[in-house]
Design a protein that fits this description.
Elements: H1 4-25, E1 32-40, E2 46-54, H2 59-68, H3 70-80, E3 90-95, H4 98-110
Parallel strand pairs: 2-3
Antiparallel strand pairs: 1-2
Helix pairs in contact: 1-3
């Protein structure tokens, strides 16, 4: 069960990460990255961000690039939340494939 503080920090991190990725994806044409959820550990030291990538075929490639530059993303995030958080949590990124799963279920139901 997530505490109120965890939920607030999750929403803050999701909003700021979305803004960082929006600025970065403006430079890459044709790829859209959205942060679908952020889960924060109870001690607020680790944050797991779930990303939706469109088109989904480029998901693994984009995730590898994001993981390679995760320290720079953490630094940019720390600059944005420096007045709200004392320490910025360690970030780990994962592909959120729930939309692909829903689409697959819809295809099966239509058959």
């Amino acid at each position: 069960m997530e505490s109120t503080r965890q939920a607030k920090i999750s929403r803050l991190l999701q909003k700021e990460l979305s803004e960082i990725f929006r600025q970065q994806t403006a430079k890459t044409n044709g790829v859209l990255i959205s942060v679908s959820a952020v889960r924060v550990s109870p001690d607020l030291s680790i944050a797991r961000a779930y990303l939706s990538v469109f088109p989904s075929e480029k998901g693994e490639e984009i995730l590898a690039n994001i993981n390679r530059t995760s320290q720079q993303i953490r630094y940019a995030l720390a600059q944005k939340v420096r007045y709200q958080l004392r320490k910025t949590p360690e970030l780990s990124f994962f592909i959120d494939d729930s939309l692909d799963y829903i689409e697959h279920i819809d295809q099966l139901l239509n058959q």
